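Predict fold of Glyoxalase; 119 aa.
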Amino acid sequence: MILKNVLIVVKDIERSKKFYKDIFGLDVILDNEGNVILTGGLVLQDYSIWTDFIDAPVISHNNACELYFEEPDIEAFALKLDKSPYDIHYVNRLMTHSWGQRVIRFYDPDGNLIEVGTP
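Predicted 3D structure, encoded as tokens:
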């Protein structure tokens, strides 16, 4: 068995496609009526489609999982976030863990938790 994708729920597909392109450089592979596959295996699904499937509300900012990215030039990435046109809601700005890894945690526009760390 192979894990192929990770799906996150978003309220505005176009806004999310732009956010993940601008911030992470992810490109659209497939755009199919509320289901978008991006490079790297990230899938965006429209909120209304997802709630119809599971018949339950989506809880934004639930902190139950996170998307994890690695970036060797974390200082440049931190500056890119600060200068981006997006209203970034940080969990923590650039910090260093006791084991030496530097990380930033923040939410995407729909409240999906993201961590970016050094390799």
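Residues 6-117 form a domain with the 2,3-Dihydroxybiphenyl 1,2-Dioxygenase; domain 1 fold (CATH 3.10.180.10).
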